[in-house]
Amino acid sequence: MASSAGSTLNVQEGVLTASSLARLIEEGAIAASGKGTQVQPASLDLTLGPKARRVRAAFLPSGRQGLAERLDALTLHTLDLTGDGAVLERGCVYVVELAERLRLPKDLSGAANPKSSTGRIDVFVRLLTEDFEGYEKVPAGYEGKLYLEICPRTFPIVVREGSSLNQLRLRRGQGRLTDREVAAELPQGCQVDDGLNVSVDLSPSLGEVVGWRARRHAGLIDVDKVGILDPRAYFEPIAAPKDGLLTLDPDEFYILASREEVVVPVGLAAEMAAIDEEIGAFRAHYAGFFDPGFGVEAPSRAVLEVRGFDVPMILEHGQRAARLRYERLEEVPQRVYGSAQASNYQGQGLRLSKHFRAG
Q1: Domain annotation covers residue 353
Q2: For the CA atoms of 39, 291, 119, 152, what is the dihedral angle to 10 degrees?
Q3: Do both 124 and 247 map to the same domain?
Q4: pLDDT, tens digit, for every residue of 240-275?
Q5: Which label site among 6, 195, 329, 346 has the fewest CB atoms less than 10 Å from its CB?
């Protein structure tokens, strides 16, 4: 795809950019250090606090009990995340109070998503607030603590205080683009239906390996160590099927790539959305935020984190797997995704998480 990086969209409503997030930190609306790479072009990396609680099961605040009260009742034991950190075992549910606090203006709301590197190692994370009966949403004007529910699905992981597994995106008003507006921003020929349709690539154009299937009994993954793991110790490579068909086994985890090259123009942000209710037997979305500038410097695919559900299902080359929904930014960003800030996944094709060695 060619990009439309010269977009002239300039509106006051929309997703907040890095400069606005930094300003909110300075003003105390977000209690966060803002140091290093925590502030992204259109989102804020959230960080773990000093302890994790192993809980009986996932839960939400209720009308009768806030999160803190329910957390005390459901905690099995507590792990110390300071120093060298702790191991979070696969299949277990943990809740961690995050280091960040919010005191949002009444016109700002938020949404959260796993970071790309979190989704690609099959760690299921969801944001919780103190009293909102839902996941991944921050109500407008919210004031209080943030918590993260963490459940490693395939690999045990090592985390520590300061580790970052998810991101927060703040917005003012409703800046989502209509299909007509999306089509006008993207090159001709894109399939747009409630966002940009994203399909799966199982063709030899990707090379000898068109996907990866997670191994069930691999070692630990330290979420803070980059580029050190052998991919084949954790994933089994999938060769291009001659008939273009791949059978997904129930409860197995796959990394695949989109057939389409994805571009997020500089004036926009995007989020990958699942279409489970339409395709039924698999999920193709864990981590969803795409920053402005993704795919502008170099052709880039979307990576699909796929999990089979109740029955085996055949996935066909070119089959629709997810959709990308676009939103306006509230201002032209001063920072964009790309080489200037050493973004990990610019120009990606089929790519495992940053924890693995290339090649």
Answers
A1: no
A2: 20
A3: no
A4: 999 999 999 999 999 999 999 899 999 999 999 877
A5: 6
Element (H, E) at 269: strand 268-274
The pTM score is 0.91
Phi, psi of 135 (to 5 degrees): -95, 155
Confidence of residue 27 (pLDDT cuts 50, 70, 90): very high
Place of tokens 């080359």: 317
Contact 168, 21 (CB under 8 A): no
Query: Does 120 share its domain with 188?
Result: no
**Residue 66 belongs to domain with CATH number:** 2.70.40.10
Structural domain containing residue 294 = 179-341
359 in any annotated domain = no
Helices (H), the chain: 18-27, 67-74, 116-119, 179-185, 231-234, 276-279
What are 84-113's pLDDT values in tens digits?
999 999 999 999 999 999 999 999 999 999
Tokens encoding 278: 């339409």
